[in-house]
Design brief:
Blueprint (H helix, E strand, L loop, with lengths): L2 H10 L4 E4 L5 E9 L2 E9 L1 E4 L2 H7 L22
Antiparallel strand pairs: 1-4, 2-3
Protein backbone atom coordinates (compact mmCIF):
# COMPACT_ATOMS: atom_id res chain seq x y z
CA UNK A 1 0.00 0.00 0.00
CA UNK A 2 1.29 3.50 -0.79
CA UNK A 3 1.82 6.21 1.83
CA UNK A 4 -1.46 7.99 1.02
CA UNK A 5 -3.33 4.69 1.33
CA UNK A 6 -1.92 4.17 4.82
CA UNK A 7 -2.76 7.75 5.83
CA UNK A 8 -6.27 7.46 4.34
CA UNK A 9 -6.99 4.30 6.33
CA UNK A 10 -5.78 5.90 9.56
CA UNK A 11 -7.88 9.07 9.09
CA UNK A 12 -10.94 7.09 7.99
CA UNK A 13 -11.43 5.97 11.61
CA UNK A 14 -12.42 9.59 12.40
CA UNK A 15 -15.13 9.45 9.73
CA UNK A 16 -13.36 12.00 7.56
CA UNK A 17 -13.12 11.73 3.80
CA UNK A 18 -9.51 12.25 2.75
CA UNK A 19 -8.34 13.30 -0.70
CA UNK A 20 -5.04 14.15 -2.39
CA UNK A 21 -4.31 17.64 -3.74
CA UNK A 22 -1.71 17.85 -6.48
CA UNK A 23 1.01 15.34 -7.22
CA UNK A 24 2.85 15.35 -3.88
CA UNK A 25 1.68 13.75 -0.64
CA UNK A 26 3.77 13.68 2.53
CA UNK A 27 2.76 13.12 6.14
CA UNK A 28 4.57 12.84 9.46
CA UNK A 29 2.45 12.07 12.51
CA UNK A 30 3.24 11.57 16.19
CA UNK A 31 0.45 10.95 18.70
CA UNK A 32 0.53 11.43 22.46
CA UNK A 33 -2.29 10.03 24.63
CA UNK A 34 -3.37 11.60 27.92
CA UNK A 35 -6.44 9.67 29.06
CA UNK A 36 -9.34 10.86 26.90
CA UNK A 37 -7.14 13.53 25.27
CA UNK A 38 -4.98 12.72 22.26
CA UNK A 39 -2.54 15.30 20.92
CA UNK A 40 -1.14 14.93 17.42
CA UNK A 41 1.87 16.56 15.87
CA UNK A 42 0.82 16.19 12.26
CA UNK A 43 2.64 17.67 9.29
CA UNK A 44 0.85 17.12 5.98
CA UNK A 45 1.49 18.17 2.41
CA UNK A 46 -1.08 17.56 -0.30
CA UNK A 47 -4.12 16.17 1.55
CA UNK A 48 -7.60 17.45 2.33
CA UNK A 49 -10.17 16.30 4.88
CA UNK A 50 -13.95 16.62 4.98
CA UNK A 51 -16.64 15.56 7.49
CA UNK A 52 -20.17 16.44 6.50
CA UNK A 53 -23.05 17.05 8.92
CA UNK A 54 -24.67 13.68 8.18
CA UNK A 55 -21.46 11.84 9.10
CA UNK A 56 -21.13 13.80 12.34
CA UNK A 57 -24.73 12.98 13.30
CA UNK A 58 -24.24 9.29 12.48
CA UNK A 59 -21.08 8.69 14.47
CA UNK A 60 -21.40 11.31 17.24
CA UNK A 61 -17.61 11.78 17.12
CA UNK A 62 -17.01 15.05 18.96
CA UNK A 63 -13.58 16.59 18.63
CA UNK A 64 -11.75 19.88 18.26
CA UNK A 65 -8.73 20.85 16.20
CA UNK A 66 -6.25 23.46 17.30
CA UNK A 67 -3.91 24.12 14.41
CA UNK A 68 -0.63 25.98 14.64
CA UNK A 69 0.85 26.94 11.29
CA UNK A 70 4.62 27.11 11.73
CA UNK A 71 5.50 27.68 8.08
CA UNK A 72 3.97 27.50 4.60
CA UNK A 73 0.28 28.08 4.04
CA UNK A 74 -3.02 26.48 4.98
CA UNK A 75 -6.27 26.52 3.02
CA UNK A 76 -9.39 26.19 5.15
CA UNK A 77 -13.09 26.92 5.03
CA UNK A 78 -16.54 25.49 4.56
CA UNK A 79 -17.30 23.69 1.35
CA UNK A 80 -19.87 25.40 -0.85
CA UNK A 81 -19.30 28.88 0.53
Amino acid sequence: MDSFGLYHDMVQSSGATTSVFGETFEATIAAHHFGRLTLFDRQIIGAGHKRDAAQIQRDGFDHFYLQVLRSGQMVSGRSGG
